[in-house]
Protein: YifB family Mg chelatase-like AAA ATPase
Organism: Geobacillus zalihae
Amino acid sequence: MTVKILSIGLRGLEGYRVQVEVQEVPGIAAMVIVGLPDASVKEAKERVLASLYAFGCDFFDKRLVVHLSPPERKKHSPMFDLAMAIGILKAMGKLTAPVSPDAAFLGSLSLDGAIQPVDGMLPAILAAKKLGFQKVYLPYDPTLPLHHLKDLGCIFVQTLEETVQYLQGQRVLSLSPAFRTPEIMDSPRKHHRDFQSIIGYHQAKRALEIAAAGGHHVLMVGPPGCGKSLLAETFPTILPSLSHDAQLEVISLYQLAGEKIESGHPPFRHPHHSASSVSLIGGGTHPKPGEVSLAHRGVLFLDEMAEFAKKTLDMLRQPLETGKVTISRISSTVTYPADFILLGAMNPCPCGYLGSRTRYCTCSPKQIQAYRNRVSGPIYDRMDVLLSLEVIDFTKETRVSESSETIRKRVEEARRKQYERYGKEITNGRVPFELLMEKSPLAKRQQLLLQQWASQHQWSNRVQTKIIRLARTISDLKGTEEIADESLWEAMTLRWLKTYTKQQATAR
């Protein structure tokens, strides 16, 4: 008789139903696992047999065939251990109680029969909910935000013996730990920086406020010490808190990557410019999320952007445009979400002092052009805001800056308007252009003005689209229903990047 037990397999964040079939067949004693298992799944036979031996069942003289269906998908997680053990016990008559077809079994087994969590537990649980499972047997993990999954019965088991006793109705397990709120979900904001502490840079702060409100990408260009890194590291303090669904997405991605997340607030990723394309985009034999996915719903800061390999930067084109990244390998093709705000920072030239009022630039025109070409035209096109920065003269700066909390309240209000306008949690920087034009069409005079400036500055269609998106965000911050002329003018000025030739820099 063939016994069928259900579990969950993962393909990126997407989960699918895995049917664990167990049957005893005549032949040489062994346990054979089929269904495209990888090394971690093949080794499960040793873990499962050892845990069954610790449970008091010895099946070393039997020939057992374990089939993981669907057979065409590669299985690459020890998450199926518990389902295999239950299936073997059921097939050999040690478990007589029926197993519900609406129950899934998740977890890895240790040699003494203890059930342990593995990477990807949260996305597997979310997938079980979408697939219509009513119960999930799994090990308890205090970092899982299960208190929001009330539609799914999570039954926490510590050992294989507990699981069997529960299935046979001999033991009642407590479900109360599931509804304890993890610290990462409700931890208060703890920031060591505040825009109020940054003197000057009022134009830059205004640009960053617009970027935060509409989810726009920003490229900051300026000499060393002008505050690019300081502004970027302070930028997360004005971002709104993540919604419940967004937090679940972020935690799921970090679990798949095997990393810990410090809080439930927008993530901030700051990879070094020597980072490889695999670490930035994601990959590996079994593709894991990269920095662009770990920055999902948050910020990806690329300091010294021109020092990154050009090939690596060009790989950002897909996630910048679509908000997701597709990684294709021989074993599988995986798509991860990558909806982040890109903050780039670079110097105007290799030495950094082109256009400086206090230092002389030592770079030749050929070196300057080669340095600028490290960031390709398509990447420049995908940046919404081009921001020129200069060193601030603190002796002449008297204007008081607003606090991050004050700015964040305006950003939250602007995003609320966007969510109401589009009927879902999406910003002006990500909404399909057709829907943006349907909800906020430009007046005829505004279209003519934009076309005139586009022709004068040789802006591509993508740049013109981004200017309209910026203008919509600026109008949201101002509280106007339609795109105002002033908002369009301000949006066009945000695409103005100061560029100095060698002769102009020398004259200064």
